[in-house]
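User: structure tokens for this one?
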Amino acid sequence: MAIREDGVSAVSVGELLAQDLQIPHYQRPYSWKPAMALQLLDDVKDALDDPERNDVPYVLGAVILHQNGDRLDVVDGQQRLLTLRMILAIYDTADDYVLSPGGDNPVSRVWEALRRRFDSASNEEKSALPRLIRERCQLVRIVTDDVDEAFRVFDSQNYRGKPLAPHDLLKAHHLREMRNETAAMKSAVVETWESVKDADLDRLFSTYLYRIIRWSRGESAPGFTTDDIGLFKGISPNSALAPSARYHLAAQTALPMLRAWNSSNGASDRDDGRSQFQLDAPLLAGRSFFEMVTFLLNEFKQLAREAFAGAAGRFCIYDLEALDNDDVLDERPSRSRYRYVSELYLAVLLYYTNKFGGEDLNQARPQLFAWAYALRIELLRVQFRSVDNRARGKDESVPSAFGLLRDAASGRAIHELPTDPKPYQPGHEVELVAHLKGGRWA
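Assistant:
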């Protein structure tokens, strides 16, 4: 399944807008500023007023569409299409502004800017512009019956804005798996997703979840790309399932009963979330994916506070004070030399607590810290390759904490990790050496 044989064509704006176009739930909301909309309007006017162009069509770029049954979902081009619709609505309705969206949002701000431009336009422009836009402005229409292929085309073309990140593709995939959910539920899921900073989503998947999965398998984790999203597509309850998939589906279905039992026995909501969203088990596609992301975003920030409590906070890449005050996880440039070991430590601690909760956590925390931060003492310069090798156990003299935890029945398995770093240069990372030797974790 890919781009249709007749799926690439040049069409007029009028022809395209007459089709059954839909903005799917996974798209980000309209975000153009008034200046961008006015620039589009000016570009169109200048091109159409140019006597040398005469009746030559003016091409406004490409629009990528996904054939979704009888309708066409807009994968790329929604900002331009919505802006063109607003221009045409204003110019066609003359001084009748019943369609004004109202409120204070990007759509209403652009609408008001376009309306003011209309008020100052000549009568000739007001009467001619709608026809010129519909008939002489064209778009390159690309249609595919495979939404993943549509996103890949968008990523490669990148006409406007930055390329879609892998987590954007995952959002689209899991929204499609919610086909049997109500529109209200889908809207709620999208609203929650959109309330999260893109940097936080990227950090969760690229820096932590992707690496945890790869390292727990003894594999290198060079970088999370669109080729890796299969790690998080999960099990679809709407498709024929193999026995192993049925097992995990049944486990997910039984979790509400387990949650009720846990509650009567004093278990926390946090441990319930860890039980439901095991990092090395397949997830359930659809709404469960979004619930997992919400849980893990909160879990990660809470864990960062616990991981670097007390004196250990001096060696953290993240600004924990800002996290306490504003719930914002920013990096501290002054601690950039601890970036990779901070990330390694937080990744393995997230994996540990996901499997064993708070079991022996007071003993596990300093051991995992020493295992990760020993690299900062042993090497004058720590690069990602060094961290990647340690995490997947390439150095046989230092076992992989991820490998130990993967098959462990108890968190005590990490006692096999060495607690002392290899020989290091005198005078190198004196404060960190003192912290490891002194065991000051209060």
